[in-house]
Amino acid sequence: MDREAPYIQWFPGHMTKTRRMIESDLKLVDAVVELLDARTPKSSQNPLIEELTKGKKRLVVLNKSDLADPAANRLWMAHFKAQGAEVVELNAVTGKGVPSLAPALRRLLKEKIERDQARGMNKPLRAMVLGIPNVGKSSLINRLAKASKVKVADRPGVTRGKQWIRMEGNIDLLDTPGILWPKFEDSEVSLHLAFTGAIKDDVMDVEEIACLLLERLSRLNPSALTARYKLEPDPEQPGYELLTKLGRNRGFLISGGEIDTERAARILLDEFRGGKLGQVTLELPPREVTP
Ligand SMILES: Nc1nc2c(ncn2[C@@H]2O[C@H](COP(=O)(O)OP(=O)(O)OP(=O)(O)O)[C@@H](O)[C@H]2O)c(=O)[nH]1
Ligand SMILES: [Mg+2]
Q1: CA-based angle 268:6:50, to the nearest 5?
Q2: Which domains occur in the chain, in start order?
Q3: Ligand 1 neighbourhood includes 32 CB (under 6 angstroms)
């Protein structure tokens, strides 16, 4: 898609402050846990992550993997591994995959562990979670806090005022995540973020987004649209036609018998985000990967 994205307005006013906060927290940690949305691993990656985390080890996490296509998850895992990254796939809500996090962090920080050991030290490793809005940062931190014996360890002196969660594997996790701004300059990326709920609905035209999502789903998972909304989409059908049909089939009417397409749009987005339209991945890694 090469059109602009006038239906999403993004105000980057708070970025400088956010960036400064992340930069100061980064000074306290050895590694960064970079949360990506498994449905849109590329679009959910912050454009400045490389620059921001320079000199830090990075663990890539494909979160919400339960909502994404399992075959696509395998491709993305292979893609990140081929780049030499440590990567884990998880569901921060149920905790599936979460036990693999600590071992992956220890592998990532192997050299530091060995250096410390050579000096007769056994300092906890320190990490923080980074990710765009709604990607599951708080869910993951809560999960890890529940799983750890010492729920929250305060480490005065080293990091005044900061709260840490002592994880297994001798790892301390900063209990406040860094919220990164999404990439908003690319319309395709903005669309993915709107579909998955990373961009708030009140800064965009929900009906327009819903129409575009319906067109996308007509290609990616038409049978889910048939099963759930009795639609029989063909790939050429305009989204607005599909949205109107959806509203009619669900009985969403406003006075005068007109179809409430806004309500239809909100329901569609809600149900897609909740995984009720199947496990859908919106973008695949570049071709060179063979799993
Ligand atoms: N299905 C599924 N839902 C998830 C997963 N992780 C988080 N969620 C849901 O995604 C939504 C956002 O999760 P949060 O943990 O609040 O995300 P966050 O990154 O802290 O969001 P902000 O604080 O707004 O930046 C919640 O409704 C979670 O229940 C996951 O792995 N699978
Ligand atoms: Mg949060």
Answers
A1: 90
A2: 12-179 (3.40.50.300), 205-273 (1.10.1580.10)
A3: no
